[in-house]
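Task 17 of the worksheet. Students: predict the tertiary structure of the chain below and write it out as structure tokens. Keep your answer in the requested format; marks are given for formatting as well as content.
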Amino acid sequence: MAQLISIQTGKPAFYPPVENSALASKPWLTGFFKTPVSTPVQIDVEGIAGDGQADLISHGGPDKAICVYASEHFPFWRTFLENDRMDAGGFGENFTTEGLLEDNVHIGDRFRIGSTIVEVSQPRQPCWKLARRWDRKTLTPEVQRTGKTGWYFRVIQPGKARAGESIEHVEARQTGSQWSIARANVVMYDPTVEREEIEQLVAVEALSASWREQLARRL
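Model answer:
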């Protein structure tokens, strides 16, 4: 049984520059830094109460209401980055899970967490803010290459959830059930992928509008 290990929320805030850092030499506005929440949180179609994003063009909205990352990946990143501080919330995620991975989570999968029902909408696309947070210029493409990206939930049934609750798989949309997060990542990032694969992914009903638009431009 999969489990919601922790919940993190946070509003955008300004952070000062970091001394001797090439990537963080200027102040920045970000909602990347989030705080664990132990009490139940209210979740609606726009996301978790008390959470927010600074860049509403690239982040947030109904298709990307909740950012999710697998706790199983953090030991790898602690070793890879030689940084013991990489743990739950380290990818700026709202939900840190156990028992769900990119190869067994599919576009359109629906899960019940507490009284909330959520649906997988797309892989998480690592951006420059992840690189800046961990002061590693190459981190964004490195995450893409590993496939350890995480993913997003849209909210189908608003409700409440809390850390420690089980994650119950309730159904999968038939059109998306063959498309794991891992497979979708390959189509997005592998320039040699066949056109037919792109066309098939674009046709998945549960895929987010932003991914459908990006892939349609490639076609």
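Marker's comment: DSSP finds six helices and 13 strands in the chain. Residues 209-218 form the longest helix (10 residues).
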